[in-house]
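Checklist before submission:
- one chain only
- standard amino acids only
- sequence pasted in full

Submission:
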Amino acid sequence: MSWSWRLASAATLLLLVTSCGTTASDEDAGDGPSAPSSTAASTPLGTAEPQDPVLSPGPGEVLELDQHGSEYVFTKAGRYAVRLTPDLVYEVDSPDMWEVLDGRFFSTSDFSGGRGIFLVAEAPAGKTWLPAHPCRDRTRVPVGPTVRDLAEALATQPVFEATGPASAAIAGRTGVFLRLTLPDRFKWTTCDGGFAVGFTSKDRFPDWYVYGEAGLDVSLWILNVDGQRFVMISRCETACSDKDFEILRQMAESVTFIGAG
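Returned file contents:
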């Protein structure tokens, strides 16, 4: 990952959160790391080989990512598992030489080429909020407990342009699909911090999901997974190509959720 993209990704992931879910019914459901410093980015621009660990699952192997080991790792093409809760993981096919932050957040790198970020986020009932205004007021406003509650609340937020929400099924689960974009006419200077934010599951700054500037293009699948609400997120920007979007789509379609002790 280039310095500029890696640092931009780190800034994006600064606004990501983790938490646990609660119960709800079928389509409905109840149910970040701190940002690494620039010194944590240990693959300088122009380095021939990554200096962070490179993981490589064996044939037919699903390799669970360590969320307490190296801050950054690279993935050889293969299948990986990400733990969401003590009893739930999701598996996903990662492209070759993508980078993973804290065993949770996938992004492209200098070694993979392209642009994109992929993750699955928890959005628990009773502990998920939207900003009063995505740009100007980060006061947390509670969102309802269901999958559709969150989708409709996001779709009606100012600043973002929404496609959907629409009922969807993916990864063997039911839920709602929503696409959010920030048009080129979006004025970052009108926003607190220069960016708009979407939702959070933590009650303190700065943990926000769906953050960005003009050109942001993010797809969200808001799903009921065993009575818990999760959001599968693929994020791209103006510089993303059709190939980048296709890779993100393939990653989303490869996901399976598996109960695990």
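Reviewer check: DSSP finds three helices and 15 strands in the chain.
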